[in-house]
Design goal:
By secondary structure, the chain is of the alpha/beta class. The protein has two helices and three strands, in the order βαβαβ. It has a three-stranded parallel β-sheet with strand order 1-2-3, covered by helices on one side. Strand 2, helix 2 and strand 3 form a beta-alpha-beta unit.
Length: 100
């Protein structure tokens, strides 16, 4: 199904090296404001590389994952279309990347 609504980007929050490095941390009231403004979609870019274990199975840091779930939960609780975008993860394209 196609989506033709209006969206907003929660950029520079979870795609920064660490939340708060480039923009203030996300707050729940942002999503109320987005809804009031008429937005229907929220794009949440996420950078994973600073939050991964350094050895197999390269698990995502539990605290960071809980924060991602919290923010996505705020989005879904208000019936937004929520787009999660893996962002700034250049390490996936690195010639040094090897699968185990």
């Amino acid at each position: 199904a196609a989506f033709n609504g209006i969206g907003i980007n929660l950029g520079n929050v979870l795609d920064a090296p660490y939340e708060g490095a480039w923009a203030p941390p996300a707050q729940e009231y942002y999503f109320d404001d987005y809804k009031t403004a008429g937005f229907e979609l929220v794009r949440i870019p996420i950078r994973w590389d600073n939050h991964l274990g350094t050895s197999a199975p390269y698990a995502i840091n539990a605290t960071f994952m809980a924060r991602v779930q919290q923010i996505v939960g705020w989005c879904l609780a208000r019936n937004f279309v929520c787009v999660i975008n893996s962002h700034h993860d250049d390490w996936l394209d690195s010639s040094n990347f090897t699968a185990e």
